Structures are given as C-alpha cells and as structure tokens.
Amino acid sequence: MKRIKILLVEDNRILRDGIRDLINAQSDLVVVSSTGGGHDTVEQVRTMKPHVVLMDLGLRGEHAARIVSILAREMPHVRVIGMGLIPTQLDIIEFVEVGAAGFILKDATVAEVLQTIRLVAKGSKVLPPPLTGSLFTHVVDRALRRAKGSLTGAVRMTKREREVIALIAEGMSNKQIAVELNLSTYTVKSHIHNILEKLALHSRLEIASHFSDRLPPP
Length: 218
Prior knowledge:
single chain, alpha/beta, Rossmann fold, Arc Repressor Mutant, subunit A, 2 domains, five-stranded parallel sheet, 10 helices, disordered C terminus
C-alpha cells in the first residue's frame, strides 16, 4: 500500500513528537519530516515532497499564512491542513483563502485527526463540524468581490504604511516591526489600523496573504 507522506510543522516539541508517533503507527500514513517551523519549511516541502502538510496555525513569528500562500502558489498539489486550539471563523476563512484545504482542532479525537488527513489527501476540503455552516459560501463571495479589482490600485499609501505592509508580509510581529523601523509598538498598531481601513481588510493575516506573493521565496 502506498503511504500518504506528511510533513509536520508544529513549534511545540512534545506535541510534535506525539503527533508524529501517532501518525507513524498507521499503516497508510508516514511523517517524512517534522519541524518547529521557520524559513526552511518551504524548502523542506520541496525536498521531501509530502502529499500533506500539517501546519500549526499559531507558529511563532506569525508567518504561517505566508508559508501556506507560498505552498499553494508554488506546489498546489501539496495539501495543507491547519491545526489550531480555538481558531475563529475569520482565522479559518483567512487560511482557506491563502490555500489551506482542511483544519484540525487540537482537542480533536485521534479518529478525527486521522480521518481529516486521509480525506484531505484524497482531495476533500475538511473543517471541524462547529465551523462549517455557510463558511465556504462566505469564502467564495469574498474572493469574488476582491477579484473585481485590485485592493491597492486606487488606494494611496504613505511610505511608512508600505514599509509596515512589507514587514507584515515577511511574517514580522508588531514588536519586531517596531524595532526594525525604530517606532513604538503603539505607532505600529496605528499604522496597521490605517492600512486595514484603507484596504477594507480585517486582520494582519489578510494583509500578509495579499502581499506575500510580491516577496521572493525564502
């Protein structure tokens, strides 16, 4: 039997080892590599060629959405499953929009975890039952609205706002941006608020997903 190859991205070492052992105990699944995240994640996917990537939504550095976006653009055959403890519907929508195919709550049962991996590997999109409803209809509606024109085409951005956008797209936190630009964290938050207002977006993840494709691959 051909085994489903999985790359595991989880920054909690204990949880990462436990998930790896659970998966490797299955006759049809195998973890070909596991990592705590970082800029080598995309390169590991290129090298190991997994069928599925299990991605922690809460990676340190806030770059998970950017990684998913790059994988969806460069390796669309690789299926990404997000893992989170209590993701909101907005979190799920944002990750679906950048290319995730499924989600696993970290309090899911073993059977639910394994079933999600198998279904996503076969091409299905899978969400935890509490987060389904009309979610994908919402995603499609939003995507169609944005496709009518560029969000930034008619919007004037200050030089500082463009700098903040670029650093968000690189995965930097507010504190890291503040250090990089020699600003206070409060000022960075103010710039982000203005950017969200101008682009009619709702979160930093949406900013990252819209601008990450302008950055060179890591």
